Amino acid sequence: MSKSKTKNNKINGYLLLGIMAVSILITLLFGFNMVTVAFKKGGGSGETVELDNGNTMKNDLYTIGNNPTELNKTSFKALTSALKDNDPLKITDAVVRCFISDYFTWTNKDGNYEVGGLQYIYGPKFTQFSEESRWGFYSDLDLYITQFGRENLLEVESIETTEVVPTGNFVIGDKEMPAYYVEATWIYKKSDKINVDEFQKTGYFTVAINDGRYEIVTIFDNYN
Questions:
Q1: Which residues face 15 on adjacent strands?
Q2: Where, by residue number, does the polypeptide cross the bilayer (predicted)?
Q3: Residue 45 CB coordination number (10 Å)
C-alpha cells in the first residue's frame, strides 16, 4: 500500500472519529437541556417543579395529588407562591384550599382507598384520619364509581375562605405549635347523576406549624 493511501486512510479515520465525537456531544447536550427544562430547580420553598405537562407539581414541602383538577393546580400554585413569600396567613389559607380541592373531589379518585389531601393533615394523625375518611366521607365512593362513573361525581369548583386568624399555640401532648384558624365554604360542580348539595360544603380548620410544615390539626363540619 502506498504512503499516500495510508495517509488518506488515517485522515478519514480521524474525520470519522471527530464526527462521532461531535454527535455524542450534541446528544448529551440535548438530553441535559431536556432534563434542565423538565426539572426547574430553585433555591427556596417557592420554586415549583412541573412534570408531565403540568400534571405533577411540587415544592420543597408538598407535592400535588394524583390526576389534579384545574382547581387543584391553581390552589397548589398559590401555596407555592405563599411559601416563597413566607407569609403564615397566606400559607394557612393556601393549605386549606389545597386540602379542600383534593379531599372533597372524587372525579380524580379510583376508589375509597385513595383519600385526597392527606399530606396536609398533621403527621401523627395521618393514619387515623385516613382510616376515618375511608369509613366516613369516602365510604360509598366505590359504589358511586360503579353506579355513576367517577366523572359524574364530586368535584370542587370554587372555594371561599374567611380571614385567617392567629390562635396562639396549639398543644398536643408536650408539643406546642403556632396555629391559625380559618373557615371555608365550597361549591361542587353540578352533576346529572348525584345531588352534590347533599355533601359537606363547609369546614372549620386549625392549621399548626409542625417542624416547618403547615398541617391541619383540627377539622369540623359545624361550628360549636
A1: none
A2: 12-32
A3: 18
Q: Regarding predicted confidence, which is higher, 37 or 64?
A: 64
| Chain-centroid distance, C-alpha 139 | 23
Q: Nearest to residue 162, comparing CAs of 119, 104, 83, 223? A: 223
pLDDT, tens digit, for every residue of 86-138? 999 999 999 999 999 999 999 999 999 999 999 999 999 999 999 999 999 99
**Residue type for position 7:** K
Closest CA to 99 of 204, 212, 209: 204
DSSP tag of 211: T
To which residue does cell 412541573 refer?
A: 50
Measure the CA–CA gap between 125 and 133, rounded to whole angstroms: 12
Strand-pair category, 156-161 with 175-188: antiparallel
Please say whether the beta carbons of 183 and 203 come within 8 A.
yes
What's the distance, CA 182 to chain centroid?
Answer: 21
DSSP letter at 207? E
H or E element that contains 219: strand 213-220
Q: Kindly write down the DSSP assignment for every residue of 129-185, as one continuous string.
A: HHHHHHHTTTTTHHHHHHHH-GGGS--EEEEEE---EEEEEEEETTEEEEEEEEEEE
> What's the Rg (C-alpha) of the chain?
26
The neighbouring-strand residues paired with 183 are 204
Give every CB contact of residue 155 below 8 A, 6+ residues apart in sequence. 69, 105, 106, 107, 108, 188, 189
DSSP reduced 3-state for 12: helix
